[in-house]
From TrEMBL:
<feature type="domain" description="Cilia- and flagella-associated protein 69 ARM repeats">
    <location>
        <begin position="169"/>
        <end position="715"/>
    </location>
</feature>
<dbReference type="InterPro" id="IPR011989">
    <property type="entry name" value="ARM-like"/>
</dbReference>
<dbReference type="GO" id="GO:0097730">
    <property type="term" value="C:non-motile cilium"/>
</dbReference>
<dbReference type="Pfam" id="PF21049">
    <property type="entry name" value="CFA69_ARM_rpt"/>
</dbReference>
<feature type="domain" description="Cilia- and flagella-associated protein 69 ARM repeats">
    <location>
        <begin position="39"/>
        <end position="166"/>
    </location>
</feature>
<protein>
    <recommendedName>
        <fullName>Cilia- and flagella-associated protein 69 ARM repeats domain-containing protein</fullName>
    </recommendedName>
</protein>
<dbReference type="GO" id="GO:0097225">
    <property type="term" value="C:sperm midpiece"/>
</dbReference>
<dbReference type="InterPro" id="IPR048733">
    <property type="entry name" value="CFA69_ARM_dom"/>
</dbReference>
<dbReference type="InterPro" id="IPR048732">
    <property type="entry name" value="CFA69"/>
</dbReference>
<dbReference type="GO" id="GO:1902093">
    <property type="term" value="P:positive regulation of flagellated sperm motility"/>
</dbReference>
<dbReference type="InterPro" id="IPR016024">
    <property type="entry name" value="ARM-type_fold"/>
</dbReference>
């Protein structure tokens, strides 16, 4: 007990001195001077073997002691008081004179204990706990006066101080109703503590209390206190433990009988609340312990009767004169009965009782439009709440589709939205539509062909597609409920169209338009807390189920750029969604026209589809922990595809009907789908890929061979672990297959090395060309510098200029043809003589001078100065 108490027990209300204690003794009715009384001497008198027979002295001594300590015992005397209570309790069985002393001691124990020192509370904590435990054992005494006094003291002690645990086993031995009620009152006070509830549950308090709930009590206080204690145990204790204790046949029968008695005899407001509380406790037992014997005890049949008698007339004597009104308590009873029907339906054995009680017929009475003009037993708000709660339990096609049509119609109706299931339905019909769609979704999920065909025959596909078309093109923002309803509608259409070409044709152009509208929505909404990622996933699933496999819908999807929208979604969606989108694309690429769309697609940074798939492959292997070097080459030829998780799990022998880890890996990641896409796109001449990308493509191309190598390795290891040696031909075949696959892995590694070597050679060639261009640039710069130096020399040194002139003339003469000149001919010189310039002169002369901007600025400054001088002269 002390170990279970997490904090110190504040059982002292103040610290007093001897003078204060003397004043306490002389206050009020004890104004007369009292002689000091020693607890030790009284204890010795009571326990000494020589004074054992002095009963009268014992009675007088305890009377003086309790009169002297009328405000409470000192903490240091708690052990002695506990011994005296034990002695009096034991002697009471043979001598009734100890009844009053025992009651007096118990009465004083109900008051706060007093301390002389500050440390008394921690020093005597164990002693106080032992005293309270002893008081609990005293409850077993077969004496009504003692039991009543004990209950009163414990209540007073609890209401003035912090709670302490108490033993409950004595409750089984109490037969007197007044004593039992007093004990129940004590337990009700003590059950407000989590520690006390745990201690009570440890001795099966819930089952003990429930089994005695039907003890005759004219005041009904016993049922009320039992329910209150059970509620406290459920609130502060373990709900599962309470349910386990109440799930026995005796407790369920007791709950049933108490509930029936409240149904028959309860007419007041409090009685109806108590009736509902009993049903709530029963529903908690069913929800936490589905195997509870409700059917064996007849409780299930009783609940079915009460849940259906207002809609399905019955001549049962229990409901013959029973009527539910539009009061809050009766309305809560109706809702609780519906809720517990849902819980009881988890047991297939109860279906027969449901059928006999015509539960579905009763529930179908609520599956209709809310027509306020009709005569109903519930108010419009109550009928709406019952209707919404009913949608989760009943099934229908015609009624539900008619109700769905009413929900989207233009009829004026304002929902009250004042229930849990009516969230978001204030002033509209969204709440009804929400649960109507949820029920249809549950129906199509069953997979019953007849049920689905009936929905299709009644036009469910066209009706839902029309609603989706309005929702997808609406400019209004969607909230959580809107997104949920649209997801449900997409799921319904996908389930109805899956595997049936005719239904996909019914889906048609409007359905394809709806899907395209969802796929091209703002990608930034994927991470929205409203659940737009669910809407996108539902759209992709609907494409997979309602578009693929039908030539007409596939053609419409391609014409509306559906492939481009899927590729855009694949590029931006989170990794958790990419697997589904890629799987849809793989199946869609079975159509050759779709493959052309994939090849012409370009992403955000103008990346091609092949580049995107290679990046997805690299990310997938990085997440799996597959060993690759920095260039993407294979590092482990024997296990080229295995990641760290698969390697850590190792090979475990499994039955033949269970897939191994190598097979499970195919469906757990996207590598198999990426391989399938490359099989359609090709492994060579893919636009937008670099050499490093082709290194990865080399691994992708041999994915199937590597997976076969992995499977054969698992087979070999499993045989070794199971100590099975194959016959020689099988061993040779296995070794040959393994060798061939290992050679292919080596071939891939060699091809990767060749690609990288070719890349390095190409880089060297490009590097040399780059350096040559740099050298050429430097040669041109050197020539320009040399020409400038010559120019400076010619313009600064006349001898250099003349030498350059002679050299130029010599070069000119050398370059001319040496023709013979006849004597009769006159040869004219084309060069001007005595011209000291190395440039060829012509009629056009280029003059390099100071830039015009600089000269203009100087001219402007001079003009300003002249103007100033003119002003001064004037």
């Amino acid at each position: 007990m002390a170990a279970a108490t997490a904090r110190q027990i504040p059982v002292v209300n103040n610290v007093i001195t001897d003078e204060d204690f003397e004043n306490l003794r002389t206050e009020g009715k004890h104004s007369g001077k009292l002689l000091p009384v020693s607890v030790l001497k009284t204890h010795k008198l009571l326990t000494d073997k020589h004074s054992k027979q002095l009963v009268d002295r014992h009675v007088r001594a305890i009377h003086r002691l309790t009169k002297y300590f009328c405000h409470g015992f000192l903490m240091k005397d708690v052990d002695l008081v506990c011994d005296m209570i034990t002695v009096c309790r034991e002697r009471l069985e043979t001598n009734l004179q100890y009844e009053k002393p025992l009651c007096d001691l118990i009465k004083i124990c109900g008051k706060p204990f007093l301390k002389e020192r500050t440390s008394d509370d921690s020093t005597n904590a164990d002693a106080i706990i032992n005293l309270l435990t002893e008081l609990g054992h005293t409850m077993k005494v077969n004496n009504i006066t003692v039991q009543l006094q004990l209950g009163e003291s414990l209540i007073r002690f609890y209401t003035e101080q912090s709670p302490e645990s108490k033993d409950l086993k004595s409750l089984e031995q109490v037969e007197d109703l007044s004593v039992r009620l007093e004990i129940m009152k004590v337990l009700q006070c003590y059950s407000n503590s989590a520690l006390n509830c745990d201690d009570m549950l440890s001795v099966s308090a819930a089952g003990l209390l429930c089994s005695g709930i039907n003890i005759p009590d004219p005041s009904d206080r016993l049922v009320f206190r039992t329910v209150e204690i059970l509620w406290n145990l459920l609130e502060f204790g373990s709900k599962q433990e309470v349910a386990n204790q109440l799930s026995c046949k005796d407790c369920v029968s007791a709950l049933r009988d108490a509930f029936v008695r409240q149904i028959k005899e309860g007419y007041s407001h409090a009685d109806k609340q108590l009736r509902n509380d009993l049903l709530v406790i029963a529903s908690l037992v069913v929800s936490l312990c589905p195997t509870s014997p409700f059917m064996e005890t007849g409780f299930t049949k009783l609940i079915v009767l009460l849940a259906t008698f207002t809609e399905v007339k019955s001549h049962h004597e229990l409901v013959r004169n029973l009527k539910l009104y539009q009061t809050h308590e009766d309305f809560e009873l109706k809702k609780l009965l519906m809720s517990i029907l849902v819980l009881l339906s988890a047991d297939s054995a109860s279906f027969q009782i449901f059928s006999e009680g015509r539960v579905l017929l009763s529930l179908f009475s609520f599956v209709r439009a809310n027509d306020n003009s009709s005569t109903i037993e519930w108010s419009p708000a109550q009928f709406e709440e019952l209707q919404l709660q009913d949608y989760m339990t009943c099934q229908s096609n015609t009624r539900l589709l008619m109700l769905l049509e009413w929900c989207v119609g233009q009829a004026d109706y304002g929902g009250h939205g004042n229930s849990f299931h009516g969230s978001g339905g204030r002033g509209n019909k969204r709440a009804q539509m929400r649960y109507c769609l949820r029920l249809i979704r549950s129906m199509v999920s069953v997979g019953d062909d007849g049920l689905n065909q009936d929905l299709v025959d009644q036009g469910a596909i066209n009706q839902i597609v029309g609603i989706l078309l309005n929702a997808s093109t609406s400019p209004d923002e969607n909230d959580t409920i809107d997104v949920e309803m649209q997801c449900d509608m997409l799921f319904i259409v996908a389930s109805l169209c899956e595997g049936d070409t005719h239904r996909k044709e019914l889906f048609g152009a409007p359905g394809v338009q709806v899907l395209v509208e969802y796929l091209k929505r703002d990608p930034n909404k994927i991470n929205s807390p409203l659940g737009h990622h669910q809407l996108l996933l539902s759209g992709v699933d609907c494409v997979w189920s309602a578009v693929l496999g039908c030539y007409i819908t596939e053609q419409l999807f391609l014409e509306n750029d559906g492939v481009f929208h899927l590729m855009d979604l694949l590029e931006i969606c989170p990794p958790t969604m990419q697997n589904l989108v890629l799987g849809c694309l793989v199946d869609l690429c079975e159509n050759a026209k779709a493959l052309a769309h994939v090849q012409s697609w370009r992403g955000e940074k103008q990346i091609s589809a092949g580049k995107l798939l290679v990046e997805l492959w690299k990310k997938e292997e990085s997440n799996m922990g597959v060993t690759r070097d920095k260039t993407g080459k294979i590092t482990d030829l024997k296990r080229p595809l295995i990641g760290t998780v698969q390697e850590r799990q190792g090979v475990i022998p499994l039955p033949a009907d269970r897939p191994s880890q190598a097979i499970v890996d195919v469906s757990e990641n996207m590598r198999a789908k990426i391989y399938s896409m490359f099989c359609k796109l090709g492994f060579n001449a893919i636009p937008g890929l670099s050499t490093l990308d082709y290194v990865t493509v080399a691994v992708i191309e041999k994915y199937l061979d590597f997976k076969m190598l992995e499977v054969w390795h698992e087979i070999k290891v499993e045989l070794e672990q199971e100590n099975i040696r194959p016959v020689s031909p099988d061993t040779d075949s296995m070794m040959e297959i393994t060798r061939i696959l290992n050679d292919r892995a080596s071939g891939v590694a060699a091809a990767q090395n060749q690609l990288l070597q070719a890349q390095r050679n190409q880089e060297l060639i490009e590097e040399e060309e780059y350096y040559e261009s740099i050298k050429e640039n430097h040669r041109q710069e050197e020539k320009v510098f040399k020409d400038f130096c010559d120019y400076v020399d010619r313009t600064s040194d006349y001898t250099v200029l003349t030498a350059a002139k002679r050299k130029q003339l010599s070069a000119i003469d050398t370059s001319r043809l040496q023709e013979r000149v006849f004597t009769s001919e006159l040869a004219h010189d084309t060069l001007q003589e005595d011209l000291n310039a190395t440039t060829f002169c012509g009629r056009r002369v280029e003059i390099e001078s100071t830039p015009l901007e600089l000269t203009r600025a100087i001219v402007d400054t001079t003009a300003v100065e002249e103007d100033k001088k003119t002003l001064v002269v004037a």
